[in-house]
Amino acid sequence: MQAQLQELRRENAQLRQALERHPVVDQARGVLMAMSACRADEAWEVLVETSQHTNIKLRRVAQMVVASVAGAQLPQPVAAQLQASLSRFEARRKETDRLTS
Fold first, then answer.
1. How far apart are CA 27 and CA 35, in angstroms?
2. Residue 20: what pLDDT?
3. 3-state per-residue secondary structure call for 48-85
4. For the CA atoms of 12, 30, 69, 36, what is the dihedral angle to 10 degrees?
5. How confident is the model at residue 12 (pLDDT cuts 50, 70, 90)?
6. Alpha-carbon gap, residue 96 to 77, rounded angstroms
7. d(CA 34, CA 20)
8. Angle at Cα 92 formed by Cα 62 and Cα 75, nearest 5°?
9. Contact between 83 and 45 (Cβ < 8 Å)
10. pLDDT at 58 over 80
11. Residues near 53 by beta carbon (within 8 Å), at least 6 away in sequence
12. Model confidence at 50, in pLDDT bands (50, 70, 90)?
């Protein structure tokens, strides 16, 4: 019984943490969607790729993207990876459009 209670407390803490991080990630997705006309799922993948390739936590990447709207400078590695990821999605979209037309 005690082990179950500890597990539930741990899970509850993880869920609370996820809820706190969610808004900034959604805002960053919106910024990317507006900047590059990508879809929500593509914007998510861009953030994930950028996080993985720069070894910066996803939430921190999202914070940087949101702050850039207010004029903050994106670190060069983050800006370069964002651009590379967005370019890949744009190329895939063009190829898909070409194949379906």
1. 12
2. 62
3. HHHHHHHCCCHHHHHHHHHHHHCCCCCCHHHHHHHHHH
4. 140
5. low
6. 29
7. 23
8. 30
9. no
10. yes
11. 81
12. very high
Q: What percent of the chain has pLDDT over 90?
A: 55
Taken in order 17, 31, 67, 56, the sign of the CA dihedral is: positive
pTM score: 0.74
Amino acid at position 83, single letter: Q
Q: Quick one: pLDDT band at residue 100, thresholds 50, 70, 90?
A: confident
Q: Distance (Å, rounded) from C-alpha 14 to C-alpha 10? A: 6
Mean pLDDT, to the nearest integer, of 71-92?
92
The secondary element (H helix, E strand) that includes residue 86 is helix 76-100
